[in-house]
Amino acid sequence: MKKILALLSLILLSHLAICQEYYEVRTYQMKFRGNLGVVEKYISNALIPALNKYGVSKVGIFKDLGKPEPAILVVTIPFSSLESYAGYKAALEKDEAYLQASKAYFDMVGLDKPLFEKISTYLAKGFKGHPALSLPTKNEGRIYEWRTYESYNEDALRRKIAMFDDAELQVFENVGLHRVFFGEVLAGENTPCLTYMISFENMAERDKNWAKFSADPEWKRISNDPKYANSHSRTVRRFLEPTAYSQW
Fold first, then answer.
1. Do 63 and 73 meet the contact criterion of CB atoms below 8 Å apart?
2. Which residues, listed in sequence order, are joined to residue 72 by a DSSP beta bridge?
3. Cα–Cα–Cα angle for 149, 150, 156, nearest 5°?
4. For position 111, what pLDDT does the model report?
């Protein structure tokens, strides 16, 4: 009996270890001189507490390090399963505390009071090689680099993700490109694509570790492997800093 229980425990642990998270990544694109404060108060006072109550323990909120005008706000929400993602909006609609805390945000309607231009959203599934969020330690990560890799077609994306899972993720780890999340974009703009975040203590560390990556022998080997050729057509990159109320 003890052996059976031990085996079942190992199977359960193995299953948990490979569960791939899902990520909703929202980009609030503000209006010129739009009321960013109302949006931030909604996210910090209403959305984050409601998501935490729902079971989402860590919500990441970021601003562009370059402080563009109009501003952007990036919200990254990790879900343990697709079912959890599918059910969260219905749960929020039944949460009286959330609805009350959201009132000022929801009341800002009409063309005379635009809060933002639009919300762009990605839904992504964690890679097999990096299935769950990995938050930086305090000395690692006050700067986040958010990248999206677009591919020529669906097969090219499949091969690029395989390149990460087979070897590239390990190269990231070896050279100090601190991995936060990696996801295949299931729905959103500019698909087929993948999206990921890495973190650094500062830009000097970032530049040094990307240089180490470019010089790494394993990276040179896999980047010249024909099976991964022509898998990546365009890179979109932003440098982000967490807000004071971000949970990572």
1. yes
2. 29
3. 105
4. 58
- Model's pTM, two decimal places? 0.88
Q: What is the 3-class SS of 88-134, one letter each residue?
A: HHHHHHCCHHHHHHCHHHHHCCCCCCCCEEEEEEEEEEECCCCCCCC
Q: If 0-12 CB within 10 Å is exposed, 13-18 middle and 19+ buried, where does residue 154 land?
A: exposed
Q: How far apart are CA 137 and CA 30, in angstroms?
A: 31
Percent of the chain having pLDDT more than 70?
89
Sole residue written with tokens 């203590």? 201
User: What phi, psi does 99 have (nearest 5°)?
Assistant: -65, -40
For residue 223, give Cα distances in angstroms to 149, 183, 193, 218, 227: 15, 20, 18, 8, 9
Tokens read off for 176: 């100090």
Name the β-bridge partners of 150: 193, 234
Count of C-beta atoms within a 10 Å radius of residue 133? 18
Both tokens assigned to 115? 């809060």
